[in-house]
Amino acid sequence: SANTFAQNLVEGKDPAVVSTWDFNNTSEDDADGIIANSLAIEDSGRAWKTGLQGLNLMFNGGFRSSKFLINLAKKNNAKSLINRMLIRHFCVYNTPILKDPTKNPTILVYTFEDPSSELVLYLFKNIWENQYGSYPKIDTASLTDGKIKEIRQYVVKELQKNGFNLIIKEVNPLKWNYAMLCHDVMKIKRQGCEVMVMSMDYLYKLPTTGIISGRSSIAGEDVRMLFENTRDAFCHDGTLVMTPHQLDGDAKRLDRTGVESFAKSVATKSYYIGSKSIDNAIDYSFVHNIVKFNNNLYMEIALDKYRDAGRTVPHKYHYCVYPFNPNGS
User: Fold this and answer.
1) Long-range contacts: 132-140, Cβ < 8 Å, 24+?
2) CA distances from residue 37 to 6, 40, 100 in whole angstroms, order as listed
3) Which residue(s) pair with 70 in the sheet?
4) In what side-by-side order are the strands of the sheet with 104-111?
5) Which residue in 216, 256, 295, 302 has its CB near the most CB atoms, within 10 A?
6) Does the pLDDT of residue 282 top 90, yes or no?
7) How many Å apart are CA 273 and CA 219, to the nearest integer?
8) By the 8 A CB rule, do 302 and 326 touch?
9) Percent of the chain topping pLDDT 90
10) What are the backbone angles phi and psi of residue 109, rounded to the nearest 5°?
């Protein structure tokens, strides 16, 4: 709130300042604390692992905290499904490593397109199949309130086994904007949550109202700024931010030429819908594409962008292929 912000300034605590190194300060306590905290986070392996070893290798062991991740694909090509898969994998294959042990380790999910019930049902079916080896058939039209409650409790129990708190919020993006998103996240943090992962499906759905003051002659600048502001607002606080995003018309035209590997062909080419400069505002991205071979479906994945100081990815890990299950397991 404005009162809290003013009080912090009076006490010399500017919430925008992450850390301060004063080379004229003879006390080394602050600097030592900053270094120790950074090394603790680094050594603890705050790389969010997935159940796909090829994807882990593609990003040097997993997705690091304080980064912005995008999964890219064509229209109707499993973008949301991959995003949901990552949410489940983060809960199942990782354990909380908190900066503040008194906080509640939280994975925060915003759905701007699909109903939250659809995400919960996906998680239920996916967890069930991985546990029992069969995909449960559910007639959504005949779901009772009791059955819905049972499904929700099952999902909560399974995804909280490692200690994470999962918050799913369904939001009408036409009635929201970037400032409201920031306010909502701040409110959740004030409730004692440390937002470790924040997913938005899709961030591109959020209006860019107020992002740029005045007019910009650069096409897509408002979209680029939306992504850049989102990264600046949340990643600096240690949050892994992720969102699916759609490839643009240039990628679609390339696909019509019949390239051997669509994912490889579009990777690193900045084929982002809305702005060609989104890659300047993010840290990680990968392209995925469903292909059919001998009547079987496969998901090809290619590295699009990797920005992580001091680290590189060997070329042999830039591409991988997995059998694709439309159920997303």
Assistant:
1) 135/327, 135/329
2) 27, 5, 11
3) 243, 285
4) 165-170, 104-111, 193-201, 240-246, 68-73, 284-293, 296-306, 319-323
5) 302
6) yes
7) 11
8) no
9) 70
10) -125, 125
Q: What's the token pair of residue 184? A: 């909502």
Give the model's pLDDT for residue 296.
94
Q: How far is the C-alpha of 296 from the C-alpha of 129, rounded, in Å?
A: 20
Q: Is 30 left (phi over 0), alpha (psi -120 to 50) or beta?
A: alpha
Please list, in sequence order, all residues whose beta carbon lies within 8 angstroms of the beta carbon of residue 254, skipping any fewer than 6 positions away: 262, 265, 266, 271
> What's the rounded Cα separation, in Å, for the pair 201 and 191?
23
Residue count of the chain: 329
Which pTM was predicted? Answer: 0.86
Residue in 9, 77, 18 with CA at minimum distance from that of residue 326: 77
Burial class (CB in 10 A: 0-12, 13-18, 19+), 134: exposed
Strand partners, 247: 272
Strand runs labelled E in 113-239: 165-170, 193-201
Task: Quickly state the pLDDT bin for 45 (edges 50, 70, 90).
Answer: very low
Strand pairing report for 240-246 and 63-64: unpaired
DSSP-derived secondary structure for 103-138? SEEEEEEEESSS-HHHHHHHHHHHHHHHHHSSPPP-
As given in the structure block, the two tokens for residue 32 are 């030592």
As a whole number of Å, the end-to-end CA separation of the chain is: 42
